[in-house]
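In keeping with the milestone schedule agreed at the kick-off meeting, the structural modelling team has produced records for the first pair of proteins. Each record is given below as a sequence line and a structure-token line. The laboratory manager (R.T.) confirmed that both were archived under the project's standard naming scheme.
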Amino acid sequence: MPGKSKVMERKPLTWAEKTYLPQVIGGLGVTFKNLMRKKVTMEYPEVKPPIPDRYRGQPALVKDPDGREKCVSCQLCEFVCPPKAITIQPGSIPDESDDIHVEKAPEEFEIDMLRCIYCGLCEEVCPEEAIFLQDIYSLNGLSREELKFKKAKLYEVGGIREDSHFKWKKKKEAEQKGNAAH
């Protein structure tokens, strides 16, 4: 014999439950309790939340204290980038430049912020300490092209940062000592 359905009897509603007054009064109680509470809304962007110490934000290129490009177009950041957000076109440095000890510099450097996953691998792999993650967390633009940051924009965001190894100065000093010895 097929399953027989069982009918459940409901308890009849009381007069107060039929008017919904207990539910309305309970809801108003929650509302008035929250009206008296201290405000917790943050007035963004005037007031910004604190940024955690290990926050990984927007990647940017930095220059050394002498204003030179630190990036030498090794392309390690481009190769290690999981979403392939970084594109580098290497260029050469003119022979008459003071930075001739550097083999090459980026002719084009672009980071597509819409593809970037802010993983920090580009910063970790950079041997020249040329790319750093900034504490910027609010990016906006009116088109996709505005969020493809070119080299000039990346240097504007990154600014100048001290070297921890002053590699270029050491090479230049070694070259000058070598030339003075000859």
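The second protein of the pair:
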Amino acid sequence: MKPRYWEEAKRHLGRRDRVLRGIIRAHPDANLRTRGDAFQTLARSIVGQQISVKAAQAVWDRFAAVAGRVEPAAVVALADEALRAAGLSRMKVAYLKDLAGRFHDGSLEPRRWSRMDDEAVVADLVRVKGLGRWTVEMFLIFHLMRPDVLPVGDLGLQRAMERLYNDGDPLTREDMREIAEPWRPWSSVATWYLWRSLDPVPVEY
């Protein structure tokens, strides 16, 4: 389901930023999508840490086959060895178990997040092992569909901005924020289109 703000955001970005106007025109029918399940979105982000999109999907498929149903209770019940056999590192097994345990025992309450601002959600989720700021920002964009997230620590966004706004030269995070100022309040949408400039196949979490 397309975010309700998508068309308004496209118009704003197209007016304010010539680079984004070209990318948006090149992808007329593409838009952000959510898988709709909070636990699976966060679990996918853990599985995908520090590996390629293709490798992450292969590991996820094996993990899902082992789990049967990718839901907290099922993951809590799995032996660590079964998860390791699916291709997950020992660290990622610990992260997934911690995440599943917190969902299962109620210490994470997904229904609260829709009423919390972005930084409050970040603070709530970084308590989970393996969930750093980048991971939570992906969750804000892909699950909660927050419109104004600028993940300056994301390597893909850094690479796209350096290539398209700075002749390929490095940018500091402060430089990135300055370039992105005209995008507000639709930084998530701008980020999504800049990812498209690197890879036309949309990433989903």
